[in-house]
Specification:
Layout (H helix, E strand, L loop, with lengths): L2 H10 L3 E4 L5 E4 L2 H13 L1 H15 L11 E3 L10 E3 L12
Helix pairs in contact: 1-2
Length: 98
Amino acid sequence: MTATTLLQMAERDGVRVGFSPSGGLKASGPRDALAKWLPELRAMKPAIAAAVAQVSDAARRCGVCGQLAHFGYGVRLRQGEEGRWFCAAHRPPVDGTA
């Protein structure tokens, strides 16, 4: 099972996974789901961290100028979809319809 697949399966049961600033694995969700998924999440921590780092390093640069980007479009990291990222200067215009 890949790290992305594991994250998707855990998320379906309500488990949210992240990392602390010190690099520790953090998970929250229903107690029964945590009991089910934490052992596997801990075992795959290096693969999860590598997948997150790979996406984070590559995906958050402006697609036009390469500067740090804060605006993501079509981003679904847990599904492996990096989407497109833009800085404020190159952010696509917002459709005026509400």
